[in-house]
Amino acid sequence: MKKILGILSLALVMFGFAACNSATSSPENVVKAYYDALQKGEVEKAIDLMHFKGEMTQEQKDEIVATFNDKLAMVNNHHQGIAAVEVGEVEMAEDGEHAVVKIKIIYGDEQTKEDTEKVIKVDGKWFIDAAK
What we know:
4 helices
């Protein structure tokens, strides 16, 4: 019985790592995961999918979280939140380390906005480029 529980525990841990890695495995996946987090109001999770130049202090991260929460509140008030995000074409840079992902944001009030997200590959994982 202990052996079975040990195997199940290991499987759950591995599944957790696979789920985290899949979010950053491609430009499309990181953009989708980023907007999924914003839709759910998981601002810190969305920020963790972003790449910032240099190390960030907790105070700086708290300021960014507050700014994102304010912007998200405005979107919720003006557009009834984000209903869906469609990820479109990816334009990969020649270096293979940068890309631009086309998106279409569909708001709760049925308005739409076409935009792009710049993404960057760091240590084999894709992130939203905060330096855009």
